[in-house]
Every structure is written in structure tokens, then in C-alpha cells.
Amino acid sequence: MNEKQDLISLNEQFDDTDSNSVTEAIFLEPGVYYPKNRPLHSQKSRTRPTKQTKRFVFKNGDFNIDKGNTNHQGFFSRWFVTMVEARWRWTLVHFFLAFTGDWLFFGFIYWVIALAHGDLIEDHLPPNQNQSNWTPCVENIYGFTSTFLFSVEVHTTVAYGKRAITLECPQTITAMCFQCMVCSIFQAFMVGILFAKLTRPKGRTQTILFSRQAVVTLRDGKLCMIFRVGDMRKSRILNIKASVFVLKLGDDYDENYEQTEMQVELDGCETTFFLWPVSVIHVIDEKSPLYSISAADLLVGKFEILAVFEGVIESTGQQVQARTSYTECDILWGHRFIQMVKPDTKSNMYDVDFSKLCETERIDTPLCSASEYKSMLSLFDLNTYTT
């Protein structure tokens, strides 16, 4: 009874006037679907056209999520994380401002101490100290420029030269000890930030490339969604793992979002050996959230597929994670990826052309959903058996 209902609904969908069956319509009229950024057909989407283009994860892997004012970390923790995640130019500018501010601040303190002690009076300057028998807090201090240079010498410990502290002023000794402690903390933070920026895995993820589009095509008689991942560096990534999640959106954008994991497999390599670009394959079967989605449904679909690629860097042993997303506008129905690896007879090596990572070619593919396609196969087998 269910098969007859499916047959009637599919006959209405294809609107065949001939005597041919629905299975013949599907098998004899394959096609290619090109997605386009077009508004949804519902009236609700027309009132909110800007909601369609927003992603939860951008193509470069950054999250498009605002968690609000939920950061309860301390000032130095937030500052450290901000410096690690900032661009190099802003980090170097911050380093320059931090060190210069430290030198100016303690140089001003030394200048105030010298001014209060009377070291900057004309008769107490270094050329007249022998005649007046004056002992300053810091030797060879003429003004703020001298105290600034003394502050730099205390910080960098490049030896004092002519400017050296004396036992005349205990407050100068206290200020110098306090500057040494502050400078040690500053240098510890700066070295930690530089080490974290140089060794963080995020820079390594920039060489892991995803295909711009995902394709839906037949593979071993089943509809599959496929995208490709490649690593451009010579240093390998071990223990690779691919995870894919689909984020379904309801009819109302104010509803909660449903996140479902999709079962995927890697085609072209083992999980411990990432030799060349691999294809991440999701078989659209009964357990797939895309089981009832056809090529026409992509026109009015509202979902986003999140792809996560993880592994271990061979040279450093650090974990690396690369991310991207595919919306309904990034899926090509009726395409397949072209071959990237070919032997080079001149150099006697295998050539991997990364310029073809996103290139696809047309291939005849049923436009119906995987559920409808399976029903048509069962009906076709039933008709063959009865005849």
C-alpha cells in the first residue's frame, strides 16, 4: 500500500502523461543541479532575506557566534589570549608600547626622586659635584633623558656605565628592585606570547584546504555527499579524523537549532597516513539527515553542514583542527571531483595539482532524494521480477 502511495505522489511530482513508469522517468531523465542564491519561496523568507546568508561557521573556519558578556577571566588572562590571537602587527605594536611605557614610567620615578633630592640643581649637577661635595641618588644624571636611559639600563641589564646607583637614597634602591620584578614579569609574558604564537596550531590550519563546494553524486549505486580536504605542506599530519555535523534550521529563525552528526568515511588513505588530498564521503542512507532532501529541496532548504578535520602534526605532536561549512548554496548536485594525482614520467614522481582541489565535472545523477531513489529501485526490481 505504501509503494502505491509513493508511486502516485511521484507521478504527480513528475507529471508524466506518457505510459512510461516513474522509474523510467528517473533513469532516463537524469540531470545536473546548479545552486543559486535565490530567496526562499515562502513569504516569511521574503520578509527576512538577510537571514539566509548568515553562517554559523565561515568558510575560513571562524565562528560567527556572539556569546555575549560571559567572559569572567581576569585582566591578564584576557590580555594574554588577546595578544596570542591578534595579528602579528598588533602584537608587535603592543610590545613596543608596553616596553616604552615601562621605561618612561620608571624613568619618571627616578626623575622625581632626583628632583626631590636636589640632584637637578645647578650646583649639584655632575660637573659641579666635586666642588660642592654632593652625593646624588644616581650618578651622572642631568635630567629626564638621563633617568630614562638609566631606566632602560636597569631593564636590559646592559651594565650601567657612568650612570650608577648610590647608597644615598633608599627610595631609589626600592624603585630599582621594583622595576626589576616588573620587567621580569613583562618579559615572561612577552616570551610566552611569542612562543604561543609561533607554535599554535592555528597557523598550521591555514595550509589545510577544503573544497569550496560539496557534491552530491552516485557512488556504488548510492547517493553520497562528498567534499575534499588537502594539506599543502610537506610535513605530514597523522591520526586524521573527519567529523561532519548538519545544522537544521526550522521554519522560524527564532527557534532552537538542531545539530546532528553525520557518519562519514575517508576515501583515499588510512586515518594514520595523510599522503594526498582525500575525499570525505557521507552516504545518504536511512540514518542520514539528508535522506529526504532532493535537488529541488536545496532551492528552499535551510541548513548548514559543518565540517571538522582533526589530526596530529608530525613534527611537533600538537593537535590541529581545521573547520569549514557548506550551506545549501555550496552543494552541487550531479557533479564529481576530478582527479588531482597523476604520475610525472619526467621526474619519476607523483604530481598533486592543488589547483584542481575544487574542480568538478558533470555527471548524470537522479534529481530525487535518496528515499525516493530507493523506492524507485525497489519498484523497478519488483516490476522486473513480475515480468
> What about the largest sheet?
6 strands, mixed
> In whole angstroms, how far apart are the ends?
20 Å
Tell me which CATH architecture of the largest domain applies here: Sandwich
Number of strands: 14
Helix coverage percent of residues?
Answer: 25-40%
Shape descriptor: elongated
Topology-level CATH name of the largest domain: Immunoglobulin-like
What integer value in Å does the Rg equal? 34 Å
- Strand % is 15-25%
Tell me, what is the CATH class of the largest domain? Mainly Beta
Name the poorly predicted regions: 1-31, 36-52
Mean pLDDT: 76
Oligomer status = single chain
- How many helices? 10
List the helices and strands and how they pair.
Elements: H1 2-14, H2 22-28, H3 43-47, H4 75-85, H5 88-117, H6 129-132, H7 144-156, H8 170-199, H9 202-205, E1 208-210, E2 214-219, E3 222-231, E4 237-248, E5 258-262, E6 265-267, E7 278-283, E8 303-313, E9 319-327, E10 331-333, E11 335-337, E12 341-344, E13 349-352, E14 360-362, H10 370-386
Parallel strand pairs: 2-10
Antiparallel strand pairs: 1-3, 2-3, 3-7, 4-5, 4-8, 6-7, 8-9, 11-14, 12-13
Helix pairs in contact: 1-10, 4-8, 5-7, 5-8
Describe the structure.
With 387 residues, this protein is of the alpha+beta class. The chain has helices at 2-14, 22-28, 43-47, 75-85, 88-117, 129-132, 144-156, 170-199, 202-205, 370-386; strands at 208-210, 214-219, 222-231, 237-248, 258-262, 265-267, 278-283, 303-313, 319-327, 331-333, 335-337, 341-344, 349-352, 360-362. The strands form 4 sheets. Strands 1, 2, 3, 6, 7 and 10 form a 6-stranded mixed beta sheet that branches. The model is unreliable at 1-31 and 36-52 (pLDDT under 50).
